[in-house]
Amino acid sequence: MQSAALQGGFAHAPIDAAHAFRAALQAMARPGLVQRVTGAQPPAPLSVAAGVLVLTLMDRSTPVFLAPSHDVAMVRDWLTFHTGAPLVAADRAVFAIGDWLGLSPLGQFAIGTPEYPDRSATLIVEQPGLERGMAVRLRGPGIRDHVQTTLPDVPALQANAALFPLGCDFFFTAGADLMALPRSTKLEAC
Amino acid sequence: MSAQTHPASGQIAQGQIAPIHTDQAYNFAYLDEETKRMIRRALLKGLAVPGYQVPFASREMPMPYGWGTGGVQVTAACLTPDDVLKVIDQGADDTTNAVSIRKFFQRTAGVATTEQTTVATVIQTRHRIPETDLSEGQILVYQVPIPEPLRFLEPRETETRKMHSLEEYGLMHVRLYEDIARHGQIATSYAYPVKVEGRYVMDPSPIPKFDNPKLSQNAAIQLFGAGREQRIYALPPYTDVVSLDFEDHPFQASKADHACDLCGSNTAYLDEVIIDDAGGRMFVCSDTDYCSTRRAQGHVGRLGTAQEHVA
Predict the structure, then answer these.
(1) CA proximity to B82, closest of B28, B38, B15, B41
(2) What radius of gyration do chain B's Cα atoms show?
(3) Domains of chain B: residue spans and CATH
(4) Is B37 in contact with A22 (Cβ distance < 8 A)?
(5) What 3-state DSSP class applies to B146?
(6) What are residue B108's phi and psi, to 5 degrees?
(7) Which of A50, A103, B10, B165 is most exposed, with the fewest beta carbons within 10 Å of its own?
(8) What is the CATH number of domain A9-131+165-185?
(9) With the CA atoms of A22, A24, A26 and A28 taken in that order, what torsion angle do they form, in degrees rounded to the nearest 10?
(10) pLDDT score recorded for residue B9
(11) Is residue B263 flagged as an active site residue?
């Protein structure tokens, strides 16, 4: 392990994590709303926002899947040192990190069970920019009337939403920005 | 919205109580980071499936079950040092449960506290929703004793899980129907069951059914924590929440048919208070902040006196 993997964690873990979680909570509560986060300096290709989510939410009890885009030694070492999360195959992952291509198809991830829909994977989708992709209108819990945004693959996300109350939940990250899309959100291409 | 951008945070507002020193012997907000991560993951899943009860590994807290250990754990996982915390018990800021929880977070998180609904960024509540409308960016944390609305109809968790998964809620309507058969109306007056976004039937915690309409399309994030029963559930802002009823017996949000004797409000939920040995009584707002704000504005009820100028 390179010593660089030891760098880039939260400077004040309880405080930084508290601010980061508030941003993640607001994002998940209000789909499509972009939040800016700080505090992590993860190794490339992990974005700051993805790094902050890693430090805030993951630990030994959350198996993580790294898509090919992010399955590099530096990221593996950084993740292991800072969280202790086991690296696993897609079907066993509680969290998955990667670009959209690397995380597709969504069918490989846990969607929960009818009795326990919470036992589903949360996908952290790294993007070059949150404005990239297909224009889409979101409706549902957390959204007053509707909100306009862009997402990488609307049909696949619509298929995921159709599984409700089962399905995966998403954070889209780019640089220090993050946006969430829970399975409860209905998508209309526009 | 991050805490930094919230208009209410970062400034000392009127009516705020200054924080006491943080108790450095504990981690920020008492809980260790691993516990907070576990609760935070459960909260995110709760928001993703509104009304569904997410199991979580509830910890022992330095207060007994029934004193809001679930709410306290949810609040601890959500608090940032920039937050302004309000704690209410049956609408009141000055009752034992509210005072002790407020002091707990003053000591362990060093957060500012307030009694003003409009100034608070996080509000922990036992059995009431504030009368004043909540705003975007605010978080309302409920203390929940029994999170499972079907529990008194079906004691087995395996069965209630199955009923939720199959949307098999007929039994709940039978219970409400039995109310009508016995009392001529739906007699359930608190912990009145609701359906969230047309999917999950949820226990809104023992709030009076008067408060049920405020659950729906609320601008604030609503989080529910049941410590003893180890469940967390959530309502994102602007979520449809419908109280169960029948076409011929529609849901009615009821309250005592009086005005507040202190502030004269005709619309607030009221507590009945016995004031002498001769059966004398008065009705007062259960929401103490709402009542005192109105009195400060010059509203006077039947037994109230015009408020002297408060320094």
Answers:
(1) B28
(2) 20
(3) 3-148+198-242 (3.40.50.11310), 255-300 (no CATH)
(4) no
(5) coil
(6) -95, -20
(7) B10
(8) 3.40.50.11310
(9) -150
(10) 42
(11) yes
Q: Residue B237: which of A14, A58, A142 has the nearest Cβ?
A: A142
Neighboring chain B residues of A117 at a CB cutoff of 8 Å: 49, 52
CB contact under 8 A, A142 and B42: no
Q: Which pLDDT tens digit goes with each residue over B193-204?
A: 999 999 999 999
Tokens of A116: 């326990």
A111 vs A159: CA distance, rounded Å: 12
Burial string for A149-160 (b: 16+ CB within 10 Å, else e) reads bbbbbbebbbeb
ipTM attached to this prediction: 0.98
State whether residue A13 sits within 8 Å of chain B by CB. Answer: yes
Nearest to A19 among B29, B80, B197 (CB): B80
Residue B96 phi, psi (nearest 5): -55, -50
Return all residues near B261 (Cβ < 8 A) that are at least 6 apart. Answer: B282, B283, B284, B301, B302, B303, B304
Q: How far is B304 from chain A, CA to nearest CA, in Å? A: 40
Q: Is A117 in the B-facing interface, judged by CB distances under 8 Å? A: yes
Phi, psi dihedrals of residue B215, rounded to the nearest 5°: -65, -35
Instruction: List, for residues A6-58, the tens digit of each pLDDT value.
Output: 999 999 999 999 999 999 999 999 999 999 999 999 999 999 999 999 999 99
What is the Rg, in whole angstroms, of the alpha carbon atoms belonging to chain A?
16
Q: Please state, as a whole number, how many other Cβ atoms lie within 10 Å of the Cβ of residue A114.
A: 12
Q: Is the CB of residue B84 less than 8 Å from the CB of residue B139?
A: no
Residue B291 annotated in active site: yes
List chain A domain ranges.
9-131+165-185
- Count Cβ neighbours within 10 Å for each residue of B6-40 and write b for 16 or more, e otherwise: bebbeeeeeebeebeebeeeebbbbbebebbbbbb
A176 touches chain B (CB under 8 A): no
Task: Flag if B47 and A13 touch (Cβ within 8 Å).
Answer: no
